[in-house]
Amino acid sequence: QVRLMESGGGSVQAGGSLRLSCAASGYSYASYCMAWFRQGPGSEREGVAISGLDGSTWYADSVKGRFSISRDSAKKILYLQMSSLKPDDTAMYFCARAQALYCNRDRERYDYWGQGTQVTVSS
Questions:
Q1: In what side-by-side order are the strands of the sheet with 77-82?
Q2: What angle do CA 80, 72, 21 make, to 5 degrees?
Q3: Separation of alpha carbons 7 and 64, rounded Å
Q4: 20 to 30 Å CA-CA from 46: which of 26, 33, 34, 36?
Q5: Other CB atoms within 10 A of residue 68 CB
Q6: What are phi and psi of 31, to 5 degrees?
Q7: Would you call 12 exposed, middle or buried from its count of C-beta atoms within 10 A (0-12, 13-18, 19+)?
Q8: Helix, coil or strand: residue 45
Q9: How open is the CA angle 36-104-59, to the nearest 5 degrees?
Q10: pLDDT in single tens digits along all 123 residues of the chain
């Protein structure tokens, strides 16, 4: 049974940092692309960062230079290090596993999702 469980969210002032974690279980972790998405109030869920199988990464323009995605394949944990946080980063953050052989931004191609962790950035 595939399970994804996020942690690390919280409330922080603008300019602060948080590190999100996503613990995965129930599948061959190293064989799938993983991503972080977020959904703010009244907004669609959007891709934030993707971790590819070859070490490649992708970031949304809005977070480039501030966020860093990484994975620990031995521990089966996906991370999102967030720095220089802004109020616009306030959202529920979700980790997700891509479908086999897929590694891009279409959220419809991600078949397993965590329950989310809330990030709130105050000005």
A1: 3-7, 18-25, 77-82, 67-72
A2: 35
A3: 22
A4: 26
A5: 15
A6: -95, 0
A7: middle
A8: coil
A9: 50
A10: 999 999 999 999 999 999 999 999 999 888 999 999 999 989 999 999 999 998 999 999 999 999 999 999 999 999 999 999 999 999 999 999 999 999 999 999 999 999 999 999 999
Cα dihedral sign for 73, 76, 81, 87?
A: positive
Smallest Cα–Cα separation from 8: which of 33, 31, 32, 36?
36
Task: Report the C-alpha gap between 112 and 37 in whole angstroms.
Answer: 12
> Cα dist. 107→46, 52, 58, 97 in Å?
8, 15, 14, 10
Q: What is the DSSP letter of 99?
A: P
Closest by CA position to 106, among listed 30, 9, 37: 37
